[in-house]
Amino acid sequence: MTQDAPAAGPRPLSSPMVLSFSTVALPLGALAVAVAVYLPPYFAAHLGVSLTVIGTAWAVVRLLDIGVDPVLGLIMDRTRTKIGRYRVWMMIGGPILMIAVYALFEAPKGIGSAYLIVWLLIFYLGTSILSLGHSAWAATLATEYHERSRVFGVLAAAGVLGAVVVLLIPIAAGHIGWTDAQGVRAMGWFILGMIPIVVALVCLRTPEHIAKR
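User: That's the sequence. What structure does it adopt?
Assistant: Structure tokens below.
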């Protein structure tokens, strides 16, 4: 009596590939903490920006940002390139986010609401492009429920790790005698250095189905 061979399902994603793909969540998790917790006090205490200006700028930007994600999602769904649908968006979002991170963490004294609003808008645009492109790519990368749960679980863990690491930077800066302002700027440079590395790692090591025109 012979038994039918079990149907071959899709091969599970390798752990090295899942780990390398998840690295984009490191700077995104770090930025979520650094921008929300450390930047407003830094602007107020070290750059002389009033709390009214800071609060107004953040409120205006978050209101304008409400419609950005749905529009980006529609555009990404219709994107077709020779290098894939989402890879190209990762390559676009990385430089945009890097420029905004530098402008915010190395902002000069005397900035006003216009400077903050413009660069916060660019920052949230870059963040939205990277996070949406990365999440959508993850959903297409893993086609089975358990694989998808595994991928998104690793992404969540990487985001938490990025947040924890960036929280340790001011502590380390204080131990070596740096000021609070130097600690905040060190956060920015740490995140700035991570972005091109993780974007290159994901774009070079992660497969993507090339949709035909």
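Residues 18 and 150 are 9 Å apart (CA to CA).
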